[in-house]
Amino acid sequence: MVVFDGHEYLTEEEKRLREDRKREKYWKKWGPYVAERQWATVREDYSPDGDAWSHFTHDDARSRAYRWGEDGIAGVSDTHGLQNLGFAFWNEEDDFLKERLFGLSNPQGNHGESIKEAHFHVDNTPHSYMKFLYKYPQKKFPYKDLLDENARRGKEDKEYQIVDTGIFEEDRYWDIFIETAKETDDPEEILFRVTAWNRGPDPAPLHIVPHMWFRNTWAWGRESEDKKPSIESVSEGLAKSKHHSLGDRYFLMSPSPGVGSSGEDVIPKMLFTDNDTNYELLYEQKNKTPYVKDAFHRHICEGEKGAVNPEQKGTKCAAWFNFNEDGGVPPGECAVVRFRFSKKNQTYFDEGEFDDLIDLRIAEADDFYYRLSPLPMADDLRNIQRQAFSGMMWTKQHYLFIWDQWANGDPTQPPPPPSRKDIRNSQWKHMHCDDILSMPDSWEYPFFAAWDSAFHCITLAMMDPDFAKKQLDLFTREWYCHPNGQLPAYEWNFGDVNPPVHAWATFRVFKIERKLYGRQDLDFLERVFQKLLLNFTWWVNRKDAEGKNVFEGGFLGLDNIGLFNRSEPLPTGGSLEQADSTGWMAFYCLSMLNIALELAKHRRTYEDIASKFFEHFIFISDAMTFRTGQKDEKSLWNDEDGFYYDAISWGGPWIQQLPVRSLVGLIPLYATLTLEPELINKLPSFKKRVDWFMENRCDLAERNMASIAKRGKGNRILLSIVSKDRLEKILYRMLDEEEFFSEHGIRSLSKYHKENPFSMEVNGQTFSVGYVPGDSDSGLFGGNSNWRGPIWLCVNFLLVESLQRFFLFYGHEFQVECPTGSGDYMHLGHVSEEIQHRLQHLMTRNDEGRRSINAGNDLLDFDPYWKDYLWFYEFFDGDSGRGLGATHQCGWTGLMARMIHDTGINCRLPHTPRTPSAGMSHYFDDIFARGTERRGSMTPGPGGKPRMRRSSTARSIGARSDFDETNGDDSLSNSATLDDPEKLRLRMREKSDADAHMHRYISDQLERFKEDKEHVNGQDNEYEAGA
Q1: CA–CA distance from 816 to each of 79, 162, 730, 744, 1015 (Å)?
Q2: Are 560 and 658 contained in the same domain?
Q3: Glycosyl hydrolase family 63 C-terminal domain spans which residues (predicted)?
């Protein structure tokens, strides 16, 4: 229900989301909730020394049952991860069945853990349609080469990735597209289609093996025998599953079109086993059941006929499609597998209707995402945004963790080693997680991280505000949040400290939902706010030990950014007073103030709490800038350098600044807020307290609140740690391309330190910080991330918002040189836009057709089967923009979708005009003809029309008009569900009215750009509580 021009219109996907929200239909019951990696997680670690990577390896996963979750390729499960569906493949060259994605463990990689596969999250709505692409080599998968070469390389070398191995040369690989669609009116009816294209020059064999299985809940002694689920064969190509809570379901296969000269269909062979550990193989003990987890691998790859259950029953089932007649699938052709997962006991489905329904879901997904960002933009940007949205959906995961069971072990298993309890998370006995969570990365980080999740929610709120709100709500609930108020960080150490960004995210999600969807969820805002009061108190009590309003904090998510390991005691003695920790707390204060003011508009009791956060912010601001102790005590601000630094404090006036120019000194910019005078006048108690504070604490007011006396744009009031003078000094460095300002965003450490590293000798040991733009050159914090130079989207996003808040106050008149030394001056609104454009240039094609993230790789940049797919990396090289770290970090790198939504309309791309007004005519056609070339399971046939193997009976491989993109929106009217002509006419009339309002909205926005009527995030800002 995206609101345009005051008009509401529900797309088909939004109707489903509304039905789910109102609990009329459970559309989210089944989704992409299966992890891409469950092995080597903390939850599965029962070792005496906490070495999760060695205790449960990739090889173990083939034969050993998981205790706390499942993993698979393009997996789908229910919201409790009980019943799962996934896919396995075999190319007749590999030593084992490809049932899960491969990657290196942390000790194996020269830069920590890393996936070594080529897969892409192509499309996903929440969740009626999903699309996944896996590129599977036809030659033997280079497992050994990847292990050996990465082991040979050191910290100074780049990672060795699968595209570096040569395995995709001559296009000898499969493009395997896996699509999932739900029926129009029934969320329990799910269709799956696998389309595997042979991109190579020769025929090649392929085995496609869809799996259905139950998570093992029966082997641990916590469930009665009568609750054990089962799967058994019903007839050819049909299996029935039974579960005590999920009920009966059917796994129905359709014969696939043959690939050989015989013309015979490929009939799947149904295989059955149990999802139980192979004790005989792993531990030389007797198996508890004769048919175990690795049976399908042994049966298909090793020819062991007795590995599967001849009675065709068990808790794990597969359908084995063998495409190897006459050498396999011909070059340029495809193998297609279709099946249903259903509550209906059917023995047949019509493949034409099956494909039509998937096509309809695709058209509805196009409509859903287009209406989220209807303003005209380049097709490349729209493609990037769509894949960012998709990645946000694909990185949802079922997360199960119950501390008591994990720590103390299970009744039927050997007790865990006593030492295990003391290794990690011993203080988090209340943890009881059984939820769908948004994960930072689907393979590398298959566990939640508190501050990552807050950033996820900004993008998630655009698509599905209810899911975003649920994430923020969960972390403050009593089964996550510690009784002392601390939020859990991540499973490797729940007690670690992440930046306090939840209040900011809560308010932003509230405002995004109100602006985009016209809904105002005050109950959500109030509920989370009250829990965050506990967390704020925890921060004040635990991280400001001396009550000076200058905070410690630990590593705060910025891993190796400091001179010392900030999670450990200083080797120098004393304590580390952190500019970023104090800046974060001031930011937290203002975020809480924002929420309190919003709530006070409806419930006046919140005026008192607003006053509390207003005053607390002033105290923090004063301490950060001036200190409140002895007269000669130094602050964290260095006036000579024009920058904030961390400092070592030995108590009293004895303080030593650590002059490292890093993101630590930029974070104080986050702590800024503008207040509308109309709002203050509507809240008399709050206004009275502000006036009292100015009059009676004039010592603080004069130093920190000059802007209250001097009103800004729109007569606004500014609250900020950073004064105008200091803002100019900080921006002078931040916008200097030889310091922080790269072609692709703001670096985490100044390039100044490339030639001028800072070092300090303590007790004979030298500690140093230098500019490292790429991968980390140390093993600190696992060595798989680096905050000493690279670009991180999350912190850039907050800097962009801070500049926009400053612009709300200072307006057009306050201009800074951007970049520093260029002679070009612009106001802060344009500066924030320039940063967003540079960030988008990480992923967009340049004049040579290359994407910076691909680091000059010709395959990724130019190959027609690769160039439109993107990896969403964790962070980016500070000089080149090369993608680094995790590859599917659609968590906070998914913020790219939000930036494109806000500034994609005038983002300067190659071959497009530089000025917004000139660009309008170039882009304007996109409003009415918005279909972008669909990436996926079709390839051109005769006349340029797509070709696809469709029906095993008709064998129609030729052109199909319903795949023609020129049909545009008309596909929405071709639904087989709209048999009633009157209903169809009504729906088309609603859509026509909605289109008219949307086009009026677009025209208004274009006029604003033409006239350069500056605005922040649309016609109204989303950052502050307004009157």
Answers
A1: 51, 45, 11, 19, 18
A2: yes
A3: 723-807
| Residue 434 tokens, joined | 């059984």
**Boundaries of domain holding 201:** 72-270+321-372
| Assigned domain for 295 exists | no
Indicate if the pLDDT at residue 329 is higher than 90. yes
| Per-residue model confidence (pLDDT) at position 627 | 53
Sign of CA dihedral 516, 519, 525, 528: negative
Question: In which band, very low, low, confident or very high, does the pLDDT at 847 lie, cut at 50, 70 and 90?
Answer: very high
What is the radius of gyration, based on Cα positions, of the chain? 29
Q: How many CB atoms lie within 10 A of CB 496?
A: 18
State whether 207 and 101 are in the same domain. Answer: yes
Q: How many domains does the chain have?
A: 4
∠ Cα 750 753 755 (to 5°): 135
What whole-number distance in Å separates Cα of residue 973 and Cα of residue 416? 59
pLDDT at 529: 98
One domain for residues 748 and 699: no
Residue where one domain finishes, among candidates 671, 692, 722: 722
Quote the strand ranges of 948-1000, DSSP E: none
Q: What CATH number should be reported for the domain holding residue 469?
A: 1.50.10.10
Cβ(400)–Cβ(433) below 8 Å = yes
Q: How far apart are the first and last CA of the chain?
A: 24
C-alpha distance from residue 782 to each of 424, 730, 890, 990 (Å): 16, 31, 21, 55
Residue 621 lies in a domain: yes
Shared domain for 693 and 739, answered yes or no, is: no
**Bridge partners of 340?**
191, 252
Q: Which secondary-structure segment (H or E) carries 691?
A: helix 684-696
Q: What is the pLDDT of residue 170?
A: 97
Question: Are 637 and 615 members of one domain?
Answer: yes
CA-to-CA distance for 332 and 391, rounded, in angstroms? 28
Nearest C-alpha neighbor of 390 from the set 129, 11, 187: 129
Q: What is the mean pLDDT of residues 195-217?
A: 98
**Portion of the chain with pLDDT greater than 70, in percent:** 86
877: left (phi over 0), alpha (psi -120 to 50) or beta: beta
Does residue 1 lie within any of the structural domains? no
pLDDT at 954: 34
C-alpha to C-alpha distance for 460 and 897, rounded to whole angstroms: 10
What CATH number is given to the structural domain containing 131?
2.70.98
Nearest to 192 by CA among 340, 49, 373: 340
Distance CA 467, CA 437 (A): 9
Closest to 789 measured CA to CA, from 660, 671, 899: 660
pLDDT, position 629: 45
* DSSP state letter for 346: -
> Where in 721-782 does DSSP place strands (E)?
741-742, 745-746, 758-762, 765-769
CA distance 584 to 798: 11
DSSP string for residues in 581-625: HHHHHHHHHHHHHHHHHHHHTT-TTHHHHHHHHHHHHHHHHHHHH
Report which secondary-structure segment, H or E, holds 241: strand 238-243
Residue type, 518: G
Give the C-alpha separation, 58 to 69, whole Å. 15
